[in-house]
């Protein structure tokens, strides 16, 4: 049986995130694996890179469904950003969700 040591924690969390998105896991699971990836040292670009990497296998519809889940896990509210476009004269703003215990 393969050892868990074949993948480092960051890679394992990114793979788990990709699998969670592929099977349309609930937001709580996507959040769990996104948080694990960030905690293991993954950057936002790497998390988003997972979505881009699996898109050809899972399809655009699955990525569109998963994107708000991943965005919320990263602390961004896509709906609020889209609503603020009207208020800002067409420019998109990126509202950050306050995370408990997060510092500015």
Chart the SSEs and their pairings:
Elements: H1 9-22, H2 27-39, H3 44-58, H4 60-73, H5 78-87
Write out key terms for the chains shown.
mainly alpha; AhpD-like; globular
E-strand count: 0
Secondary-structure element order, as H and E?
A: HHHHH
Q: In one word, what is the shape?
A: globular
Output the radius of gyration.
15 Å
Helix tally equals 5
DSSP helix fraction: 55-70%
CATH C-level class: Mainly Alpha
Explain how this protein is built.
It is built from 5 helices and no strands. Helix 1 runs antiparallel to helix 2, helix 2 crosses helix 4 and helix 3 runs antiparallel to helix 4. The longest helix has 15 residues. It is globular.
Short description:
This protein has 104 residues and is mainly α.
């Amino acid at each position: 049986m393969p050892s868990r040591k074949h993948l480092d924690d960051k890679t394992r969390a990114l793979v788990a995130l990709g699998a969670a998105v592929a099977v349309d896991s609930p937001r709580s699971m996507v959040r769990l694996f996104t948080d694990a990836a960030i905690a293991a040292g993954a950057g936002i670009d790497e998390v988003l890179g997972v979505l881009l990497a699996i898109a050809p296998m899972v399809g655009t519809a699955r990525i569109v469904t998963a994107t708000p889940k991943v965005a919320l896990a990263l602390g961004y509210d896509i709906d609020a950003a889209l609503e603020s476009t009207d208020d800002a004269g067409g420019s998109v703003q990126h509202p950050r969700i306050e995370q408990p215990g997060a510092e500015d």
